[in-house]
């Protein structure tokens, strides 16, 4: 069975530098894994009241995350930090799948994650620091050295 790699492109801009980097990575992976891109533009800002009601967009996103063997984030840097869109996505995804047990597993619990970034100057180093702190906190497994550079 082929490994499944889910790409999260942190910029919603159609031809962003990080989207272009993801496309190059997909070409390099070739047929060694099945690559898909997470479409998350329609998910709402995190809100516990919405969470209690259920959000169809997040149900779809959680299924895609659960099916992945690896999640690879291609992240721009916004004000020396993780883009709000990605942080919001991770806030939703890190929530327990069991509403009665907040310590229960989430859709990304123990999932393998890595990050790449293209951004101005030294800013990829700054965003890598944020991801290195956040990803283990939300109970994911960070693998490899984060790769990136200036544009």
UniProtKB/TrEMBL annotation:
It comes from the Bacteria. One of its GO terms (molecular function) is FMN binding. GO terms for cellular component: cytosol. It holds the Pfam family FMN_red. InterPro entries: Flavoprotein-like_sf, FMN_Rdtase-like_dom, NAD(P)H-dep_reductase. Residues 4-145 form the NADPH-dependent FMN reductase-like domain. This is NAD(P)H-dependent oxidoreductase.
